[in-house]
Amino acid sequence: MSNTKKVTISLTSEQQEKARSLSKDLFGKENISGLVGFLIERWEKEQKTSTNVKPKQSRSNGA
Length: 63
Fold this sequence. Notes:
With 63 residues, this protein is mainly α. The chain contains two helices and no strands.
């Protein structure tokens, strides 16, 4: 089992409400942290199984 570490994220009030609702639908209880972890793992899994592999775009700050 992986070690967890507390982090702070910023969400609007609307995003918080959506996250609370979605986590209740998925897990049966309010768990925003679990929701974020779930979404990260799901996204990673989809990237590995995607047949439509898109090249990674480099991030640029315009400098």
